[in-house]
Amino acid sequence: MTTLIKNGTAYIDGAFVKKDILIEDKLITRIEDKINEPAEKVIDAKGMHVFPGFVDIHVHLRDPGQTYKEDIVSGTRSAARGGFTSLCAMPNTDPVVDNIATVDYIQRRAKDLGSAKVYVIGAMTKKSEGLEISEMATMKSDGIVAVSDDGKCVQNAKLMLNCMRYATNFGLPLIVHAEDYNLSGSGQIHAGKIALKLGLTGIPALAEEVIISRDIMLAENTGSRLHIAHISTARSIELVREAKQLGFNITCEVTPHHLILTEDACLGFDTNTKMKPPLRTEADRQACVQALKDGIIDCIATDHAPHADFEKVREFDHAPFGVIGLETAFPALYHHLVKPGHISLERIVDALTSVPASLLDLPPSALKIGYPADICLVDLNQETSFEPEEIASKSKNTPWLNQKLSGKVIYTILDGRITWEAI
Amino acid sequence: MDSIPQFVGRNLFDLDDYSAEEIMYILEAARGMKEINLRQYKKIPTLRGKTICTLFVENSTRTRMSFELAASRLSADVVSFQATVSSLQKGESLQDTVYTLDAMGIDLYCIRHSSPGSPQLVHKYSGKPVINGGDGRHAHPTQALLDIFSIWEKLGSLEGLKITIVGDILNSRVVRSNLIGMKKLGADVTVCGPRTLMPGGMEDIYGCRVEYNLPEALRDADVVMGLRMQLERMTEGLFPSLEEYSKHYVLSKDTIKFAKKDALIMHPGPMNRGVEILPEIADSDHSIIVEQVANGVAVRMALMFLILGGKL
Q: In chain B, positions 98-137, which contact chain A (CB-CB < 8 Å)?
């Protein structure tokens, strides 16, 4: 199979250039000013941007165990609609990914039926209960790319220290969801003016910051490779900035919603604004945007967390935490940050492609000869609509539900195969 | 008043949505209702044929009684839904509960629920007007209206009054709604309690004064309101003992002397005598605590009447 992408604006080596791209079977084989060779499929990408396929290192596919929310087929289809070609699946499924049988299941199912490459993150502790170290070395030999108890947080500092020592022994990065349970308690949204006004219990910024502070010290002590998931407060960012200046091997990610929305979004009791960490203050949001520009925040990850309608459409404090993010990620970032000039398109694309791939040693995502043909084509002048029936994910829990955002993924190509084509 | 406020079909989620003029209109209507409650035959036929549902997902006997009495006195039919003896305990969602109730032809819902925002959900599911009878720590607008009515009835106006509210500010929906309403009517409100029971940002959000020292908070107050101190807060690590709390924050002869001589004493009830208020104050001549309860029925009658478009 040969596919020729003609007349597009391609993102190559950090610059936008007019290039034609030829794909033969699974690989990019030619990138030239003009390619006129016949191909089985020719895509006229006039007016479109051609990006490397997006990489999301923080996704909840809910498979196995909660497939009414999402499964590997629907989750990767949602990825394809969003321009993503590689995902890292978090292990908080049922059963938890703390064993090779479950790792195998996800890998095999994604390979057979998926519309994106799925890399597996193993649990850091058995059943992610925060009590005993998981068999991470065994899972590593089966292909996990990192360990994490995401959704939960190891509260015991001694155990966390040992998880770091052990993971480092086997060359595994650790991804931490930073949350001190005593401080977050029964909190629902950020402990700020909106929580006060709505009478909802608050989750203080401190709940995140004290764990990040602790884990930076533990990582310093153990020399481990630590990645902080979904950073959300200005003070957390300062902690990471300082750790990086000291030369520790610490990285972090931010979600699109923490870059765009604030606690104010919770005012109408919309449970699609309820997630962990919670939407913070405007000052925190601005700090996230600035840190992403500065590189203190390394990459963007969606924390795609599907929940069914019957779980989300109910009393605010009874609804589960989390929002979907794969399909809204690029349009939301483009619409709210790039288009108004707050951040460059180049930085957003880097933070969605080459950077996240490098953080977890995934195959690089770039438009280069000889590389896998993982590509997405985006028309920045079209809008994407997020009506429930247009969302590819099984779940519709997004704060941008029923909205239109600028930027539309027209094609997604995975290993030379078209996985998404907008009609 | 430029125009007569329109209430028909409206919700009462909190007092944010009501202007000072509208609040005054409700108070005037409540004054009329109070008069009915003093008659020998305490019933008018104005809401005959209307059905009001008290949907109490959180227990509260007195508030439910107050709503139901108010509805009965206006001749509405009342159905009472209590979660402890109902399907919600069997796992039915609020959505399905409201669909079920709505199928029976409810015209107005009065809801009490531990979850903030649940009155909005009931309205969303039913399309019918909803009166919030208390949703978690969020709001309790009918309590605020009856408190405001009680002050207005005694002192004529809230403009420029110094009102001090003492107690567990953190967990109080009564304070939040009262602050919104009292500020709209021009009162200066001070809230007082220990720092562990005082949420940050009160001044910015509500434009009130925050004071941690009781005598300072009470200085020159025209109205003093105590709040119920709940024992659970102790196990949550917010204060060490009722005794120590009481030593610093009880309304007593010793502390109340900092307020104006004839300051009104209020409490939304139920009281913990000896904890947040001593009998010498609760039962004093300036206490209007019992009258607040009577006013609650009148205010709720006024709201039901206005929202359901009753005719006098």
A: 113-118, 120-121, 135-137
